[in-house]
Amino acid sequence: MKVNIDIDEMYTETQVTIQTNEWSEELEEIVNVIKRRKPQRLFGVEEEQTIILDPKTIDYIYAEKRKIFAAQKNRSFEIRMKLYEIEKILIPHDFMRFSKSVIGNINQIQRFELSFNGNLCVYFHSGNKEYITRNYVAAIKERLAMGGQSDVK
After folding, report:
1. Beta strand 109-114 pairing with 120-124
2. Which InterPro entries match (predicted)?
3. Are the beta carbons of 92 and 33 closer than 8 angstroms?
4. Per-residue pLDDT tens for 128-146?
């Protein structure tokens, strides 16, 4: 990808132009980052206390029994939002869909193992683990190979 920036006093406002031959997931992420003006915060609830969650410290977000939770080391916080709403907020923070019910932080991945059924078992730096279903494996491998800011070696 080539990036050109032209700074000149004649411009009165910032304008972004992307030239490409086809739409991609990467472009969608770039557009989402540009459109997001101020960072939205995620609030987690634990034992009736509301806690501000830093996306960098979240391993993954998951749905269970019609509720949404954020997994952070050995703790889980309930988030009172829909999974797709959280996904929009977290895309600029290098989160990707792992399955229909899980969104994971690719920067927290330590290693992964291929399961016999084609899924990937992902291990996070915190010791947590989660599965990536076959439908999402290729996109995540591509993102990591593209230079996603993951620590995966």
Report:
1. antiparallel
2. LytR-like (IPR046947), LytTR_DNA-bd_dom (IPR007492)
3. yes
4. 999 999 999 888 888 877 7
Domain residue extents for the chain = 25-30+39-145
Contact between residue 128 and residue 110 where contact means Cβ atoms under 8 Å apart: no
Q: Where are the beta strands (DSSP E) in the chain?
A: 42-46, 49-53, 60-64, 67-72, 75-79, 95-99, 102-105, 109-114, 120-124, 129-132
> Which one, of 40, 18, 142, 22, lies nearest residue 91 by Cα?
40
Alpha-carbon distance of 65 to 60, in angstroms, equals: 16
Q: What is the CATH number of domain 25-30+39-145?
A: 2.40.50.1020
Q: Could you tell me the two tokens for 28?
A: 């969608």
Do the Cβ atoms of 90 and 55 come closer than 8 Å?
yes
Q: If you search the block for the tokens 């990536």, which residue do you land on? A: 132
Condensed to tens digits (0 to 9), the pLDDT of residues 14-29 reads: 888 888 888 888 888 7
DSSP code at position 12: S
